[in-house]
């Protein structure tokens, strides 16, 4: 998609503003900059959520962003906001894991988990529990900002994975972006950070799969009477088997632990809520 006349200068202006404001232009901004109007809306929203006046102190906003991104194992965003958290005066001890954070923030874990994977299970009782008067209670204004931050970063994690965004060159290599692995529900795939070999490995796997498909087609030509359905079955079998092959290099699990320390109940994940023949659970609706 070619940028229209004048769009390049508006993109440049946005990137300059981002640099002046944050002291850096991260890769999310660079990718979104291909669509200046979208970047402009995104940047204003992000700036409002993280840097403008609000009920939550700045360091807690970044910690909530870390919690939300960690739920989807998006180590790029976790790493980004760990740096931001320290920059605004956050307590480094909190970054050892969720168990080191104040109880008030830890109480968000349940609603973070549900919002990330099964939002239809949220009930008014979840909100009431957080607002209940007590030492670690949330005010309504604080909770609204916290929930907006959680949902914002759940969505942004999808954008990071979808665009294959890698860490900036000056960012610590430990915070590489790790997409989910096809091999199991929660085991991380091989790291494809800048300068890594993950991209090459993926290309090799594709080439091997293409070679297998070619051999299948040749054998079909040699064999007479092979039906289209049988061919499709063989194709699917080859595809499935190629996904089950373990990656050639052993994954670095330190990266996974850097993210999972902010997650409680990591086994909890998405599950369909509209299954045929089953009664769908009630959905929570608010004005």
From TrEMBL:
GO CC entries: cytoplasm; nucleus
Region (Disordered), start-end ranges: 170-200
Reactions catalysed: a hydroperoxide + L-cysteinyl-[protein] = S-hydroxy-L-cysteinyl-[protein] + an alcohol
Keywords: Cytoplasm, Oxidoreductase
SUPFAM superfamilies per the UniProt record, alphabetical: AhpD-like
Gene3D superfamilies recorded: AhpD-like (1.20.1290.10)
Entry's localization field: Cytoplasm
Main location per the UniProt record: cytoplasm
GO biological-process terms attached to the record: cellular response to L-leucine; cellular response to leucine starvation; negative regulation of TORC1 signaling; positive regulation of macroautophagy; regulation of response to reactive oxygen species
Residue ranges that the Swiss-Prot or TrEMBL entry lists as coiled coil: none
Lineage top rank: taxon: Eukaryota
Gene Ontology molecular function, alphabetical: L-leucine binding; oxidoreductase activity, acting on peroxide as acceptor
Protein family (similarity comment): Belongs to the sestrin family.
The name this protein goes by in its record: Sestrin-2
Source species of the chain: Eudyptula minor (Little blue penguin)
Gene that specifies this protein: Sesn2_0
């Amino acid at each position: 998609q070619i940028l229209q006349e004048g769009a390049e200068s508006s993109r440049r202006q946005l990137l300059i503003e981002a640099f002046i404001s944050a002291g850096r232009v991260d890769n999310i901004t660079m990718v979104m900059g291909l669509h200046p109007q979208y970047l402009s809306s995104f940047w204003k929203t992000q700036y409002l959520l993280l840097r403008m006046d609000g009920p939550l102190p700045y360091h807690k906003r970044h910690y909530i962003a870390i919690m939300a991104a960690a739920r989807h194992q998006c180590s790029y965003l976790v790493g980004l906001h760990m740096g931001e958290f320290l920059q605004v005066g956050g307590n480094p001890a909190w970054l050892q894991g969720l168990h080191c954070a104040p109880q008030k923030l830890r109480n968000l874990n349940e609603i973070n988990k549900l919002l990330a994977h099964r939002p239809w299970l949220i009930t008014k009782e979840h909100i009431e529990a957080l607002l209940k008067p007590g030492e670690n209670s949330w005010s309504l204004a604080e909770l609204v900002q916290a929930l907006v931050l959680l949902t914002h970063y759940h969505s942004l994690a999808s954008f990071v994975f979808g665009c294959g965004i890698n860490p900036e060159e000056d960012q610590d290599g430990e915070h590489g972006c790790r997409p989910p692995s096809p091999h199991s529900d929660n085991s991380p795939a091989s790291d494809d950070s800048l300068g890594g070999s993950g991209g090459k490995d993926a290309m090799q796997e594709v080439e091997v799969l293409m070679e297998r498909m070619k051999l299948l087609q040749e054998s079909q030509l040699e064999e007479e009477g092979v039906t289209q359905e049988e061919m499709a079955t063989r194709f699917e079998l080859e595809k499935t088997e190629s996904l089950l092959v373990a990656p050639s290099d052993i994954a670095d699990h330190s990266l996974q632990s850097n993210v999972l320390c902010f997650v409680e109940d990591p086994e909890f994940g998405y599950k369909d809520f509209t299954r045929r023949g089953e009664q769908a659970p009630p959905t929570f609706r608010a004005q």
